[in-house]
TrEMBL record:
Organismal lineage: Eukaryota, Viridiplantae, Streptophyta, Embryophyta, Tracheophyta
Keyword Nucleus on entry: no
GO molecular function: glycosyltransferase activity
Native source organism of the sequence: Arabidopsis lyrata subsp. lyrata (Lyre-leaved rock-cress)
The name this protein goes by in its record: Core-2/I-branching beta-1,6-N-acetylglucosaminyltransferase family protein
Gene Ontology CC terms: membrane
Length: 403
């Protein structure tokens, strides 16, 4: 019995570790199962993510062949060509602000010559308050000379023109800003006109006119006179007195000194090189904007001073627009209906002689101002005959010089 009891004790003692092993095994199996489940979940999630990316990738790969086909199709149809760069805008209206416009207009080819047949044009830029009272006279002037000119009109922002489609002024009004006489806004308007005209790469010469200006010669004569000139027509005089040097401000130094200060007529004709110089200027513009205020008038000093400093030898130092200042005052004489007679028109230019290509000439003015709207009717009757609006180059060019 003692032995049996001892054996029973031994069996009980031996069974305790075995139970522990069984419990540990079960716990281990549960842990393994949990790890397998977790691994399965991770693999499932990973496969899902990879699947999503593969779907996106396959979609992109499927679309890739289409893009080159579209681009090639664009070029096959000559969407991008030299013609798209040199073709003038079909409409002068645009959404650019002044900063964007001046930047765009300052971009110029740097190579000499043109890889296409370029017919240089004369850009007529009208600085007006609104309507153009002498539009019928200008219509006669431009008729038959298509392809040799461009027209740009700057008016008050709220003015809406009503020209018909057949008019040369149809849709030629550019985006504009308000202008105050004698202030920097006047110079800004002139730069705005030049910048818009520069967008047409065929424009080679630029004439600034007002709504009260009229032509004194036919188109062919004026085109030849301007195109054959070695100089641009802008006055740049070193004038003494209160209306000249007296308008200078020492605050403009060091960019502009008193000895560099110049005065000239607002109404000019310049070539493309000088037009680009004006629109790309960021050196002299701030000085004039801040310090040139009445009795300093921007339109009489800004361009003459700047261009004479950099390109004095390119200027004829005179204007092509005749104006009568004989009556004195801040504004020139205005001529109405009663003034327009045959004798008046014959002696209208009023100059004895001037220099043209360094030779004495009897033809000094091509335009005249200042005319009231009432002068239109007699001008339409007399101008075609007296002012030779229908003349050609060959019949007039020989009378340019005094021999």
């Amino acid at each position: 019995m003692v032995m049996e009891m001892e054996e029973g004790v031994k069996e009980n003692g031996a069974s305790t570790p075995k139970s522990r092993v069984t419990n540990q095994t079960r716990a281990l199996l549960s842990m393994r199962l949990l790890q397998i489940l977790l691994l399965f979940l991770v693999l499932t999630l990973g496969i899902s993510v990879v699947g999503i990316h593969m779907i996106k990738f396959l979609k992109i790969q499927h679309l890739d062949p289409v893009a080159p086909t579209t681009v090639l199709s664009m070029y096959d149809h000559e969407t991008v060509s030299l013609d798209s760069f040199i073709r003038p805008p079909s409409n002068v209206w645009h959404s650019m602000n002044d900063t964007e416009l001046l930047w765009r207009a300052s971009i110029e080819p740097q190579r000499n010559g043109y890889p296409f047949k370029r017919v240089p044009k004369l850009a007529f830029m009208f600085l007006a308050k609104g309507p153009l009272p002498f539009a019928p006279l200008w219509e006669k002037f431009f008729k038959g000379n298509e392809g040799l000119y461009s027209i740009y009109v700057h008016s008050l922002p709220n003015y809406k023109s009503d020209f018909s489609r057949s008019s040369v002024f149809y849709r030629r009004y550019i985006p504009s800003q308000a202008v105050a006489w004698g202030e920097m806004s006047m110079g800004e308007a002139e730069r705005r006109l030049l910048a818009n005209a520069l967008l047409d790469i065929s424009n080679e010469w630029f004439v600034l006119l007002s709504e009260s200006c009229i032509p004194l010669r036919g188109f062919s004569f004026i085109y030849s006179y301007v195109s054959e000139s070695k100089y641009s027509f802008m006055g740049a005089a070193d004038e003494e007195g209160p209306d000249g040097r007296g308008r200078y401000r020492t605050e403009m130094e060091p960019e502009i000194t008193l000895s560099q200060w110049r005065k000239g007529s607002q109404w000019f004709e310049i070539n493309r090189k000088l037009a680009v110089e004006i629109v790309q200027d960021t050196t002299y513009y701030p000085k004039f904007k801040e310090f040139c205020r009445p009795p300093c008038y921007v339109d009489e000093h800004y361009f003459p001073t700047m261009l004479s400093m950099k390109h004095r030898l390119l200027l004829a130092n005179r204007t092509l627009t005749w104006t009568d200042w004989s009556r004195g005052g801040a504004h020139p004489a205005t001529f109405g209906k009663a003034d327009i007679t045959e004798s008046f028109l014959k002696k209208l230019p009023g100059a004895k002689s001037c220099l043209y290509n360094d030779q004495q000439s009897q033809i000094c003015y091509l335009f005249a101002r200042k005319f009231a709207p009432s002068a239109l009717e007699p001008l339409l009757q007399l101008a075609p005959k007296i002012l030779e609006l229908g003349s050609n180059i060959s019949s007039t060019r020989h009378s340019w010089f005094l021999f």
